[in-house]
Amino acid sequence: MTKQNMVVADAKTGINVAISMAVSGSSLFTTAAQRPPPAAVPGPYITISRINNGARINAWVDSMRASSPTRIKASSLSDDQDSWILHHPSALDMFEQITSASKGKQIVMFLDYDGTLSPIVDDPDRAFMSEAMRATVRKLARYFPTAIVSGRCRDKVYSFVRLAELYYAGSHGMDIKGPSKGSKYKKGAQAVLFQPASEFLPMIDEVYKALLEVTKSTPGARVENNKFCVSVHFRCVDEMKWSELAKQVGAVLEDYPNLRLTQGRKVLEIRPTIKWDKGKALEFLLESLGYANCTDVFPVYIGDDRSDEDAFKVLRERGQGFGILVSKIPKETNASYSLQEPSEVMAFLRRLVGWKRMSLRRQFRMRRRLEEIKVSLPN
Ligand SMILES: [Mg+2]
User: Fold this and answer.
1) Is 117 strand, coil or helix?
2) Tag placement on the chain: N or C end, fewer CB within 10 Å?
């Protein structure tokens, strides 16, 4: 372990704070794919030294509340919605523009799971996707390389989706595996592609157990072990108790300077302090598929949560493809387009499949016509 001085931007205030933090050496980050490890740099996240600061706890809760609205004020919403939709129009309304922008390029699909392919439900173990959605994603994977990118443990998200032909990036991309069968897009024989945080596993397990113990006193609190990260779900906790639960989580994290905390929709998540997120996972998967430096690739990422913003941002910075935010209400986002709920995601994916099928048929007919012309020409 070495001490490292860093400047960390406070996510809420934007103020830079100098901190001294213990970080581990490179041996901590050995990878399954023998790839250079990501740097141990905390992003704009809460630092351990300030973790029990009352204002900070409130900031977590406020931020989580903002991304998980439980009450919607109809009057103010209507104006906000109108102006927001101008900047983030429906991907269904903009379908023709989207497909024409992808002309001549390989579309690669990235799909979040919770709130994107399945509805958000009170019990995270029962966030099932419909058979219709499964059939749609199966068809999608026939025409485009497709990856599921989730905060959940990879095995868990696979148990919900059950499609062997997809790429899976679990634990916010810290656990990536290629298709086990049936995909024409499968590259190489290696099943597990990347696990950049494998040496954090014992620590994550320890924190999971500590969080289970400490949150017992809060009714409705749910702790989920996602293998490379831990989620504390607030979905079934009375909003009056959110600060108390956040304090309990903060107290446990005090002992783990190599872990950081992020907020999502009614969830606090604890992850290793490595610079790895859904955006990095997207880049890694594009590279694995052979599109690292290609200009003829068109990645489409659909997600509903704050953690998906890292992927939206990568697409904006690359100037390739686009992000689609799944949300019924206006939210600050790096996504270009929006869809309101999983049923609209399914409608969009179906249109994409139908459009691709039609274009392939058209290409096939044109090729056949050219062959016929060639044959009919005198030698
Ligand atoms: Mg989600």
Assistant:
1) coil
2) C
Cβ neighbour number for residue 332 with a 10 Å cutoff:
10
Give the Å distance between the CA of 152 and the centre of ligand 1. 9
In-domain check, residue 11 = no
Residue 185 included in any domain: yes
Residue 304 CA to ligand 1 center (angstroms) comes to 5
Q: Answer for the pair 171, 200: CB distance below 8 angstroms, yes or no.
A: no
**What is the CATH number for 232?**
3.30.70.1020
CA distance 113 to 110: 10
Reply yes or no on whether the pLDDT at 3 is more than 90.
Answer: no
Residue 322 lies in a domain: yes
Same domain, 222 and 288: no
Answer whether residue 204 shows pLDDT above 60.
yes
Catalytic residue among 112, 114, 175, 304: 112
**Torsion over CA: 122, 69, 279, 27 (sign):** negative
Burial 273-312 (b: 16+ CB within 10 A, else e): bbebbbbbbbbbbbebbebeeeeebbbbbbbbbbbbbbbb
Identity at 151, one-letter amino acid code: G
255 is catalytic: no
Residue 186, pLDDT score: 62
> Strand pairing partners for 175?
170
Structural domain containing residue 282: 77-196+277-364
The CA distance from 145 to 318, in Å, is 19
Q: Which of 257, 272, 287 is the last residue of a domain?
A: 272
The whole-number average pLDDT for the span 147-154 is: 94
The reply to whether 207 falls in a domain is yes
Pick from 256, 250, 264: nearest CA to 51: 250
Tens of pLDDT, residue by residue over 94-127, are: 999 999 999 999 999 999 999 999 998 888 889 9
Task: Please tell me whether residues 84 and 183 are part of one structural domain.
Answer: yes
Q: Ligand 1 centroid to 236 CA: how many Å?
A: 17
Query: Which tokens is 221 given?
Result: 């609190």
